[in-house]
Amino acid sequence: MDHKRYFFEKFGVTERLLERCLGEALSAGGDYADLYFESVAATSLGLDESIVKSASQGVSAGCGVRVVSGERTGYAYTDDLSADRLLRAARTAALIASGPAKQPVQGFTETSTPDLYPAPAADLDTDLSAKLDLVVRADRAARRYDRRITQVRASYADELRRILIAASDGTFASDTQPLARMNVFVLAKDAERTARGTSGGGGRVEIGYFTGAKGPEFFATEAARTAVLQLSAVPAPAGEMEVVLGPGWPGVLLHEAVGHGLEADFNRKKTSAFAGMMGRQVASSKVTVVDNGCMPSRRGSLNVDDEGSETQETVLIENGVLKGYLSDKLSARLMGIPSTGNGRRESYQQIPMPRMTNTYMLSGEDDPEDILRSVKRGLYAVNFGGGQVDITSGKFVFSASEAYLIEDGKVTAPVRDATLIGNGPEALKYVSMVGNDLALDEGIGTCGKDGQSVPVGVGMPTIKLDRMTVGGTGR
Amino acid sequence: MTTAALSGIRLSQLAADIVARALRAGASDAEVTIREGDEFSTTVRLGEVETLKESGSRGVGLRVLLQADKGYRVASTSSSDFTPEGIDHLVRGAIALAAVASVDPFAGLGERDEFGQLSGDLALCHDDVYSLPTEERIAWARRAEAAAMAVDTRIVNSDGASFDAATGRRVFANSRDFVGEYTSSYCSIAASPLAQGSDGQMQRDYWWSQARAFRDLESPESVGLEAARRTLRMLDARRVPTQQAPVIFAPEVARGLVGAVFDAAAGDAVYRGASILAGKIGETVAAPSVTVVDDGTIPGGFGTSPFDAEGLPSRRTVIIENGVLRSYVLNVYAARKLGLKSTGNAGRGLAGNPFLDAGNLFLQAGTQSADEMIAGVERGLYVTRLMGQGVNLVTGDYSRGATGLWIENGEFAYPVQEVTIAGNLMHMLRNITAIGSDLVFRSATAAPTLRIDGMTIAGE
Fold it and tell me: Is residue B270 domain-shared with residue B318, that is, in the same domain?
């Protein structure tokens, strides 16, 4: 797939211009320079109170120029892609270095990219009525689920991101990255209480994805089911107890507990609680965790990362032992470790850094039913909101939005929202059972780091943690 | 860095032109937002420059309304392309998109007599933000980090220190003859040191100062010292047993509660019945000592603007007065849904419908010093940092990860981590039993120290 032609044809970018800009970027020295061109077209539709209240489309384009000199990074960007402005941005980024000019590598080597996701040729505004149909159907399905559903908000959003990367080390890469997502938010109301339920999903997919099994009816029913369930929820328990996490999105545990702590920048700077722990036991021997950027159609997947490197599957923890970091070009060079293709950025206005893609735990051998039966008194959490981690102390939280009490091996009452808290380098040591039912999330994850948001995926089989602190108000 | 300063008149004219073009293309009403900004940032780590970033960008958004029998169809477009073809695409795209939207009986711009803007100098933009040469800005970040590192040998590492500066221009025009624009400036300095305790565990905290004028920024040394003090006091933190005990929220976390009050009073949550404060105007919702105000008019404030994102003048709204819910916060749409008037709290992105946004939001100061409040607690938790999402505004359920200091007989005993605090926002507001005198606007939302009784602390 030839993704670069878009920039060549629409913005008049030429290989000669790329070489000139890289030469200008290294005009005061430096070890490395790159250019990141980005053009994004986005559509979003919102339905509220059974009518389509919002419809919007946006386009943006720009280029970021980076110059790296030792551990120093200079950065400038422009939303005007004329040669004049590109060269000016390159001169601004060059200010980070102070030495004799360097020459970029002559001639580019194009990174070969797989086709992990569809690359629509046209802009995405062609299927507008089909997109509208999705939110209308979600509204109907949610209201049909139960008479107690009083409010439904449904949204559909997609974007098509085109990127082109050229670097002084000869890297040349381009990609066209679709991303689509549906969300449903509902309120259920009875005589005494009001409760909310949310659901959503998508990935690097075209609209056809939503006409399959994971369509508006699926997400609407899920949201409605959760809201109705919450009407009868009891207070969540408080304190340390056995916790069983269901398959799929509860994998956000891994993202917070270990994923961020294994991003190479934090370990290069030794600010991570995992610094210096390579090769050490950081989890139960039943735990193997990978980050995989090359899964077809997944929200966190990329044909090529935002530095033009190929993405890959990286083993982070193998049988409980810490095996690898997630790196970008800068940290790979400074730490002398392999680049794992995890250099990502939110947009052309941002400096790339090591980020996760799709992070999940591999299946074990336990039957999920057996896992639940083994718990005397504990919490069974199957769905979550987001999470957060303090990289340095290792403390992390994630918030359960659908969870149940487990009493004598049986799943009983649903509980109200509660935050779970743990310590990253310790928490996974308490994993005593791992189910055989690995599932990935529905495609709703967005990860924030240093003010930059990128789409990610998580996954996990059913697991049992012998201890974890549940932040409820009950006994 | 003078592009923003030169282009104001031209951008106001452009915004008005785009409104006129949208009307000619068939829109019944139109709104145009233009934003332009320059940013500078540098980070220094262990004395060396780590990043240096300097750039500017701009964007334009158009929202069109097409009149139908009983309401309007609404759609919006945004772009970074200011060429004539780009603007043409923006206008045609919005009109085409609106044709497929539903007719919304409550959509529409404000009434003519509602539009307007505050007069006089609101002191939002100061040239001195960019007067400091790059080398000096780097030196400021370096000084903040050095001050933190020098405090104690237990400060062993650094997540860096930063200096940021930005200027921005915002232009808004609509088809009811409103045209307005203003510029604002901002600069900040921050430091984030790491310390290691006797148990080998690392801790990191940070401190910052931000200001609209460079001359109002606190010294790098004071920022570094405070960052170090905050980090060092967390060394050798431990957990506490699960229990109910009074919780004191330090100002930097108390402001999150004030933010939750704003979100619960937001008109869109209210008309959907998605808020615990819906339908409670005139009712007692908090302790009698609690007054929460949103004021977008304070000169120099971080949340000040001459007009909101719909062209209505910013104003002061008392949300809770002596514990009684007095007002929701509204934009034109939410107000129309509720049969009320907008409180001038519209915010918006370049594309999309207006949402609700706070100005300078605060909980009014009490009379006790923070020290007196701590001295009044026999056993309890002083919270300095919170993690996680917090509060479910539909049910009021509140549960967050907490870090802080344990209070024993009115004094700090030891640092605490890896615990949660939980309760229900409605109970928490009623159980505010003490309010500090230490209200300082370090950002647009501010609160003094607050004591809340009856929360559950979950730990060991």
Answer: yes
pLDDT of residue A125: 55
Whether this model's ipTM surpasses 0.90 comes out as: yes
Closest CA to B210 of B446, B447, B450: B446
Task: Check residue B132 and give its pLDDT.
Answer: 83
Q: Which residue from A79, A270, A419 is facing B399, i.e. has the nearest CB?
A: A419
Checking if the pLDDT of A322 tops 60, the result is yes
Is A59 close to B89, i.e. CB distance below 8 A?
yes
Average pLDDT (B151-168) is 96
Question: Domains in chain A, please, with CATH?
Answer: 5-230 (3.30.2290.10), 238-471 (no CATH)
Asked which of B197, B230, B263 is the last residue of a domain, the reply is: B230
Q: Cα dist. B288→A169, B310, B365, B436 in Å?
A: 66, 34, 13, 15
Place of tokens 């046209």: A122
Helix/strand number for chain A, H first, E second: 10, 23
Query: Looking at the structure, do residues B282 and B400 belong to the same domain, yes or no?
Result: yes
Cα A196 from Cα A401, distance rounded (Å): 10
- Report whether B417 contacts A395 (CB < 8 A): yes
The string of DSSP letters for A293-342 reads S--TT-TT--SB-TTSPBP-EEEEEETTEE---B--HHHHHHHT----S-
Please name the member of A46, A53, A132 whose beta carbon is closest to the beta carbon of B100. Answer: A132
Domain end position, chosen among B187, B214, B230: B230
Give the per-residue pLDDT at B389: 82
Q: Is the CB of A55 less than 8 angstroms away from the CB of B353?
A: no
Q: Does B89 touch chain A (CB under 8 A)?
A: yes
B83: closest chain A residue by CA: A80
Q: With an 8 Å Cβ cutoff, is A56 touching chain B?
A: yes
The pLDDT tens digits for A237-268 are 999 999 999 999 999 999 999 999 999 999 99
Report the domain count for chain B.
2
Q: Are residues B243 and B198 in the same domain?
A: no
Q: Answer yes or no: do B257 and B224 share one domain.
A: no
Please indicate, yes or no, whether residues B86 and B150 belong to a single structural domain of this protein.
yes
Q: Based on the fold, state whether residues B254 and B152 are members of the same structural domain.
A: no
| Closest CA of chain A from B66, distance in Å | 13
Res B2 pLDDT > 50: no
Q: A15-25 and A83-93 helices cross at what angle (nearest 10)?
A: 30
Element housing B220 (H / E): helix B220-232
Q: Do residues B449 and B371 make contact, with C-beta atoms less than 8 angstroms apart?
A: no
Residue B248 belongs to domain spanning: 237-460
Q: Please state whether the predicted TM-score (pTM) of the whole model is above 0.90.
A: yes
Inspect the interface and report whether the beta carbons of A51 and B103 lie closer than 8 Å. yes
